[in-house]
Amino acid sequence: MTQWMKTLAGSMCVLTILLHLVPDGRFAKYVRFYAGLVFFLVAINPALELLGDENQLEQLLALEFLKEEYYDLETAAEGLSDLKNEQILEAYQAELERQVAEIASAYGLMAVSTEITFGGDGYSIETISIIAENSSGEGDEAALEKTKTELAGLYLLPESEITLAWGE
């Protein structure tokens, strides 16, 4: 417990110094976000250790980074909506498919195939479909449900529009 308090105090000092060194500008909000995220994860680490799941901290961190990437992508796509450049649209859609596969991976699933149906504008997500294998080789329904819930929350879709199934 003493070590945790030392780590918490040390990280607070380092993050405060870092926040004062970063000039106000367009990157300041990102530095504040990630500094807050790091501090939160350091602060919650003992509670996660008590729960006994060592990988949960890594999963939380990976998912938070993916959420931030998604929001940045969404903002960039809105800014480029006037251009409607086909290459940008394809890159956006490919990145979303990569993110969906990575979210599944964070819950112990290996996405065999990922399919996202986009709306008429090409940017809004209508449905997500994943065929997955469990990395342990067994079907874990809890992992499917957690993945489905995370995808629904992140992409603001009803869970009925997300299909997850085990590969054959």
Summarize the structure.
This protein has 168 residues and is of the alpha+beta class. It contains five helices and three strands.
Order of helices and strands: HHHHEEHE
Low-confidence stretches: none
Please identify the structural class as seen in this structure: alpha+beta
Question: What does the largest sheet look like?
Answer: 3 strands, mixed
- What Rg do the Cα atoms give? 19 Å
Question: In order across it, which strands form the biggest sheet?
Answer: 1-2-3
| Average pLDDT level | 81
> Quick one: overall form?
flat
State the helix count.
Answer: 5
Give the helices and strands, then pairings.
Elements: H1 2-21, H2 28-51, H3 56-79, H4 86-106, E1 109-118, E2 125-134, H5 141-155, E3 162-166
Parallel strand pairs: 2-3
Antiparallel strand pairs: 1-2
Helix pairs in contact: 1-2, 2-3, 3-4, 4-5
Please supply descriptive tags for the structure shown above.
alpha+beta, three-stranded mixed β-sheet, 168 residues, 62% helix, flat
Describe the structure.
This protein has 168 residues and is an alpha+beta fold. Helices cover 62% and strands 15% of the residues. The chain has five helices and three strands; from the N terminus they run ααααββαβ. A three-stranded mixed beta sheet has the order 1-2-3, with helices on one face. Strand 1 and strand 2 (125-134) form a beta hairpin. Helix 1 packs antiparallel against helix 2, helix 2 (28-51) runs antiparallel to helix 3 (56-79) and helix 4 packs antiparallel against helix 5. It is flat, with a radius of gyration of 19 Å. The chain starts with a helix and ends with a strand.
